[in-house]
Specification:
Number of domains: 1
Number of strands: 7
Structural class: alpha/beta
CATH architecture: 3-Layer(aba) Sandwich
Oligomer: single chain
CATH class: Alpha Beta
Strand order of the largest sheet: 2-1-5-4-3-6-7
Strand content: 15-25%
Largest sheet: 7 strands, mixed
């Protein structure tokens, strides 16, 4: 009887430990770290994979929630001032944990001419550290990834209304080449 009780207690401890570990935040990414892989569907219906963008600079701008004021301002900035980004040889995306259908409607509402990625399972968002066990919507952080797949810069201080211009300025500072 005692052996059954000990075995049951160990099983409970193991389950509690696994639940706690699942809710611990991932180690925070930093400049120089490899960017976590992603394969996400976008507002345009296409699927984008980081591995398919190897050899290119990539900007991945996470935002909390479609149709909210700050996120609308940020994504409108990318649509309105996207020409500043198109001068650079870069693939750029905004991303959230909203559904593909919600992000498709959102993209239309802000006039997005760029892909808005969806991560409704929060797996990629968790890998990037923008969500964790206590935070279900992404932090407004932007990751700049170099052609070798390493993180070049992380912006944790996003100013939404002019953000595309800020991103273009950072691309210049990072020495991202102009499009030919």
């Amino acid at each position: 009887m005692r052996a059954l009780w000990i075995g049951g207690a160990l099983a409970v401890v193991a389950m509690v430990t696994m639940a706690l570990v699942r809710h611990l935040p991932a180690a925070e990414l930093k400049v120089g770290d490899p960017a976590p892989a992603f394969e996400l569907t976008s507002s345009d219906g296409a699927t984008y994979k980081l591995e398919d963008l190897a050899g290119k600079h990539v900007v991945l701008a996470w935002y909390p929630k479609a149709f909210t004021p700050g996120c609308t301002a940020e994504c409108r900035s990318f649509a309105r001032d996207g020409d500043a980004l198109k001068h650079y040889d870069v693939a750029y995306f905004t991303a959230s944990c909203d559904s593909v259908a919600d992000n498709a409607r959102f993209a239309e509402s802000v006039g997005a001419d760029y892909p808005i990625l969806s991560d409704p399972q929060r797996e990629v968002a968790t890998a990037y550290g923008v969500v964790d066990g206590s935070r279900k919507v992404p932090r407004r952080w932007t990751f700049y990834v170099g052609p070798e797949g390493k993180i070049l810069h992380i912006d944790r201080e996003v100013k939404t209304t002019q953000y595309a211009l800020d991103v273009a300025e950072k691309l210049g500072e990072l020495g991202v080449p102009n499009r030919k």
